[in-house]
Amino acid sequence: MDPQINNSAPMIELRNVSKWYDSFQALTDVSLIVNKGERVVICGPSGSGKSTTIRCINRLEQHQSGQILVEGVELTQDFKNIELIRREVGMVFQQFNLFPHLTILQNLTLAPRRVRKMPKDQAEDLAMRYLTRVRIAEQAHKYPSQLSGGQQQRVAIARALCMEPQVMLFDEPTSALDPEMIKEVLDVMIELAEEHMTMICVTHEMGFARTVADTVVFMDKGQVVEVAPPAEFFAQPKNERTRLFLSQLLKH
Amino acid sequence: MGYSFDFGAIAGYAGLFLQGAGITLGLIAIAAILSLFISIGGAATALWGAKWARGLVMAYVEAIRNTPFIVQMFFIFFGLPSLGLKLTAMTAAVIAVTVNLTAYCIEIMRAGIESVSPGQREAGLALGLHPIWVFVSVILPQAIANVYPALVSQIILTMLESAVVSQIAVMDLTHVADLIQSRNYRTFEAYFVVAVIYLVMAICLRRVMARAGQRLFAGRAR
Amino acid sequence: MIELSLADILSFLLLAARWTVLLSVIAFVGGGIGALLLLLLRYARPRFGSGFMRVYVEFFQGTPFLLQLFLIFFGLPKLGMDVSPLMAATIGLTLYASAFLAEIWRGCVDAIPRGQWDASASLGMNFIQQMRDVILPQSLKIAIPPTVGFLVQLVKNTAVTSIVGFHELTKAGNVINNATFQPFITYSLVALIYFAMCFPLTFWSRRLERRLTPTGHR
Q: Which residues on B lie below 8 Å from C163 (Cβ)?
């Protein structure tokens, strides 16, 4: 196990979480522990509840039973508590969701200025630092519509990082990208992973999982089916459904 | 036949036309500014308010949209004072035009807000922004930009409708025409010139607001 | 001051409302015919027709309806014609309707994608056949909701004809008000009757609009 992972108190803990959309049960008894510095990849067929799970962690979706704890604090209906948690949890979306009416720089400085009450120059310095990190500093004064998909997603990652979160959630970050742009985004994510940013990544990019993940979680039909380190997961999957999924994946 | 058009007789009244146009423009300007703010609140209520509040807003919007402006105006100018409220003609006109324009703007704003993709709200919330900030900084600018042409059209439409306030003796552009033709009997010329002035105002207003829109919403080329 | 019961007022208003309905129907039918003529001109003689239509529509959409009425009611007599309030109201509203309907329907025809014209042309169809079998059937479908919506506009605009003395619902309201000095009740009833006429149309127009876009297909 990677010595950089801190086992003392889990960063994120899901205990028997269930969620329904009307009568349809989207999540059944999902339990998961993510430690500080751990990099988790969640995979599974579509409709398996992977996105729903991570969206519950920052309350974009609401779970009906079970508990979700972030840094030991339970996620409840309490609004103040939700806002505090969202400051520490960053999210990158499949559709990027950059703010089209703001420049790249403004996209990044909006939340630090409003939420953390940072003064303008400080926020802009912070933003430029992260833009440089994702190698897109020269686009700071452009608008999202002027950037390619890969560039927009890198900006989205920088935007989430500007809030300096403790955890990063990735919801299929490369699924909406043209193939030639996937690498530039994955490279940024790999760098983040190598710095031991705690992250949960829902993705189909198994190469990423193999290279960088500490744990791979397989979900199917709203349940956690198998949890294992990548070496074990890919070489000797224990569950029949996992094996079926992997064989279908490898066919491509 | 025997009628000779004499537009020259009208030319001397240029100052009066200017005054009337000023009143017409001033009226719609006040109404537009008030409507903008009130309709944002109204749209927010219609979308996310308590059930009774939503009902109230929708009832108001439907009442205005399904009744003639002139009747609304008569109701305000004649009806309200009979309940004890003292109103000058100008005040009644401002109220009537504002009440009318706001109802339409609430519908337009609502459509605008709904047209912003849900991912925008999610991204704002995910960053830890308070929902009010998400509404003001992320949703609203995009909503307004999306429905800007519809808003401009509605404002111009309402300006044209406001011509009926001349009938309760507000000194707008139409009233000026009434005045002039009652003095020199050049009825056709007076009304024709005023019609053209309205047309010119409508065209100019549209151009000016389109350019303002380009400035305000720069760089958003979707 | 005359004492009138609510029932008296209501029946007086409702009788006048018949004229509102009649005027609306005449203007709608007349305006529809006018619109078709305009469109025929536009598509048959594009160079002159579209310019003419543009000026025509700009005038009626860019000036207050009240002024259009005044021009007809006060202006035409100067040319020797005898114009009654009914005539002025009918002519004015019909011309107004023709401009708006022409513009709405033109938009619906233009909304049909170029590809439809291309496909039908490549199958060897001529202009009349294209219009009759491919373009118009599709345009008709999308034209119905805004046309019904415009009918509401038309009904509301009949109220303006009261100013030139046409005896419809609003004028009846003025008469009652001048007699009884009860503006609040009078104009409330007038508004209610208009609402009863317009709201069903508004509702129907929205229903039609929704049926056109069942799953976001447009």
A: 70, 164, 167
Query: What is the domain class of C6-210 according to CATH?
Result: mainly alpha
**Other CB atoms within 10 A of residue A66 CB:** 17
Q: Which residue of B has its CA nearest to A79?
A: B130
Domain assignment present for residue B84? The answer is: yes
CB-CB contact of B78 with B63 (8 Å): no
Complex-level ipTM: 0.89
User: Nearest residue on chain B to C70, judged by CA atoms?
Assistant: B191
Cβ distance of B130 and A101 shorter than 8 Å: no
**Residue B52 included in any domain:** yes
Q: Residue B195 is part of which domain span?
A: 11-216
Per-residue pLDDT of chain A in tens (252 residues, 90 and over written 9): 455 666 678 899 999 999 999 999 999 999 999 999 999 999 999 889 999 999 999 999 999 999 999 998 899 888 888 888 999 999 999 999 999 888 999 999 998 998 889 999 999 999 999 999 999 999 999 999 999 999 999 999 999 999 999 999 999 999 999 999 999 999 999 999 999 999 999 998 889 999 999 999 999 999 999 999 999 999 888 888 898 888 887 765
Yes or no, beta carbons of B82 and C198 under 8 Å apart? no
| Residue at token pair 């033709």 | B181
Q: How far is A41 from chain B (nearest CA, A)?
A: 20
Burial class (CB in 10 A: 0-12, 13-18, 19+), A155: buried
The predicted-structure confidence for A80-97, as pLDDT tens digits, reads as follows 888 889 999 999 999 999
Residues of A in contact with B129 (CB under 8 A): 110-111, 114-115
Q: Distance (Å, rounded) from C-alpha C67 to C-alpha B163?
A: 8
Please give the tally of structural domains in chain B. 1
| Calpha distance B109→A141 (Å, rounded) | 29
Inter-chain CB proximity B127 and A115 less than 8 Å: yes
